[in-house]
Specification:
By secondary structure, the protein is of the alpha/beta class. It has a single domain (about 5-205), classed as 3-Layer(aba) Sandwich (Rossmann fold). The protein contains 6 helices and 7 strands. Strands 3-2-1-4-5-7-6 form a 7-stranded mixed beta sheet, sandwiched between helices. Helix 1 packs across helix 5 (about 155-165). The two termini are about 10 Å apart. The relative contact order is 0.19.
């Protein structure tokens, strides 16, 4: 059981942690401090008609559902799909975060994620937080393969609040993967792997006891 820890979520884009591990975030928030760093407002990919700050506003609503206080949310203005051009600045932002928060566990995209922004957050996150425990979260539509060697068992409440948090992102209704049935099905598959009804899986990058 993870208890009394500082857990930092690294989100290339708002909603990545909710989609991948919203149930775990809710479970962890009961006995740990959760911090959330979102690196882009995704202006270039926002559907037409939405305000430029929409995703960060939706993030605050979603985070509240999962038990993350407003003062634990950090946002940055890196342009979506162009993280490779800003690699050093992203690393330096992470180092400032590391020194300010001193996290015990950092949760980030997994090593097989093929999205260019996610890849940079993984690579620079691994550098910045190399002395911490690190977990890579699962977004199936971004990976050709995934190592599921760390699981978090979830309750029905965790699953319900995960979907409620995902639903806070009204601007993302266009996404094909925004489906409650899909996330429940994936949680059942991951639960089957560890003899429980629901679970979320992670890639264990490093664990420090």
């Amino acid at each position: 059981m993870i208890k009394g820890k500082k857990i930092l979520l690294l989100a290339p884009h708002p909603d990545d942690p909710e989609y991948s591990c919203g149930g775990s975030i809710h479970r962890w928030s009961k006995e740990n401090e959760i911090f959330y760093a979102a690196f882009s407002p995704c202006l270039q990919s926002l559907p037409e008609g939405f305000d430029a700050n929409t995703l960060f506003t939706e993030l605050q609503e979603s985070a509240k559902i999962l038990g993350i206080p407003d003062q634990h949310i950090y946002t940055y203005e890196f342009p979506v799909r162009r993280f490779p051009e800003h690699r050093q600045d992203i690393l330096e932002a992470m180092i400032v975060l590391r020194n300010a928060i001193r996290p015990d566990i950092v949760v980030m995209p997994n090593s097989q994620d093929i999205h260019q922004d996610h890849k940079i957050v993984f690579e620079e996150g691994r550098r910045a937080f190399k002395h911490c425990s690190m977990l890579g979260y699962e977004l199936p539509w971004n990976s050709l393969s995934f190592t599921s060697n760390f699981h978090v068992k979830l309750s029905q409440e965790d699953i319900n609040l995960k979907w409620k948090a995902i639903s806070a992102y009204k601007s993302q209704e266009i996404r094909a993967y925004k489906s409650e049935d899909f996330f429940i099905g994936l949680a059942r598959v991951r639960g089957m792997q560890v003899d429980t009804e629901y679970a979320e899986a992670f890639e264990l990058i490093r664990w420090v006891l």
